[in-house]
Amino acid sequence: MVKKSYIFIFILIIITAVSLFFIHQTPDIKEIRLGASLPLSGINQNLGSEIVIGSSSYFNYINSKGGIDGKKIDFIHYDDKYEPEITQTNINKLIKKDRVFALFDFVGTPTVKKVLPIIEESKIPFIAPYTGASFLRNPNIENIVNLRSSYKEEIDALVGYLVKSRNLSKFSIFYQNDDYGQEGYIALLSALKKQGLSLQSEGTYKRNTLFIKQAIYDIKSNKPQAIILVGAYKPTARFIKKARQSSLKNAIFCPISFVNADALMNELKNKSKNIIFSQVVPSYNDNTKITKEYRKILNIYYPRHKPTLASFEAFLAAKVVVKALKNLNGDINRKDFLYSIKHLSENTLGSIKIHYKNSQLLNRVYISQFVDGKFKVLAIRP
After folding, report:
1. What's the distance, Cα to Cα, between the start and end of the chain in Å?
2. What is the pLDDT of residues 55-114, one digit of tens each?
3. Separation CA 243–CA 250 (nearest Å)
4. Fewer beta carbons below 10 Å: N end or C end of the chain?
């Protein structure tokens, strides 16, 4: 009986070792598989769809030119409805079944936090997640490379601009009651402390719901001059609509980049009064080489789709991945790919300069307003 137990344990160890071996190995490169888990249904589906469109447009363009040394890019994406448990199922499928070369374009702080242990254990490159979470900017996790600036940098920039340029001093926050919202909440407390200010009031809502009535009540009594908005586009739009019907109507509403600004303005029917955004990429309406390229390629593959900040950011992320792959000498492998993407030329994205530090490639925040159907940049920080 004891002998059988030892045999069983030995077989289990062998199976586990073999499984870990295959997870950690770079798969045979006949095509370059990239895998995403993101919301393609539910309350935040517009954002997930924008990310897929932006990345796919550039990958399709590269594939039409022969791919990377004849290898096509296969962008696999699964719907997680912005629910962490589904994200966990999806990432396991991408790693074990699809055997992706890299994980790319994941969306959301609570969803990514759920799978962070898998990301660390797998050592698979985890590139350009659509979140500014601080836990993804840990220099000890070498396989994570962010594109965008952090939520802390966004909120520091927003508060600094509003204090210095608008002479505001009374701030409140509306945020999603989960890891994403907590990131924004902590970042705001820190930003206010730097300015010698304190938070006036706060209101929350539950992820994947539109229940914002209590948040309005909790915030309005302190009569803030500015409200930092750390939420998804639909609940944020509803909050702004209801706030405009209350004593908060004269407050300045300040959504951070995850809100999906184009979708928010669509929900608000372009009524942009008293809204100031923080963004991690410049306006796609700029007359620069990179924005022209984005609009041209988007029009080729998605001719009925309007440009958006979210799809523009995803397009830039795809372009960075392609450039890093093209810079490889010899075999395509994960180790060299990670080195390559961290050492790209600052001119890789043209006028949008990149520099790898704090585990991210972009390090600017664009304070903007929506004016006459376009996003107008008011200030760039730092």
Report:
1. 69
2. 999 999 999 999 999 999 999 999 999 999 999 999 999 999 999 999 999 999 999 999
3. 9
4. N
Residue 254, C-beta contacts closer than 8 angstroms, at least 6 positions apart: 158, 162, 226, 227, 228, 229, 275, 276, 277, 278
The continuous run of DSSP H or E covering 254 comes out as: strand 252-255
Which amino acid appears at position 350 of this protein? G
Residue 368 sits at φ, ψ, to 5 deg, of -145, 165
Tokens 């994947």 label which residue?
208
Residue 255 φ/ψ, nearest 5 degrees: -80, 140
Per the listing, tokens 């999806």 go with 90
pTM of model > 0.85: yes
**What are the tens digits of pLDDT across the range 8-30?**
444 444 444 444 444 445 555 68
Domains of the chain and CATH, by start: 12-149+286-364 (3.40.50.2300), 151-279 (3.40.50.2300)
Q: Which residues pair with 35 in a beta bridge?
A: 76, 103
* Separation CA 134–CA 183 (nearest Å): 7
Distance CA 105, CA 39 (A): 11
Token code pair at residue 207? 């992820």
Residue 84: which of 50, 62, 111, 123 has the closest Cα?
A: 111
Query: How far apart, in whole angstroms, are the C-alpha atoms of residue 11 and residue 25?
Result: 21
CA distance linking residue 48 with residue 106, whole number of Å:
9
SS (HEC) of 267-304? HCCCCCCCECEEECCCCCCCCCHHHHHHHHHHHHHCCC
CA dihedral 191, 233, 175, 105 (to 10 degrees): -70
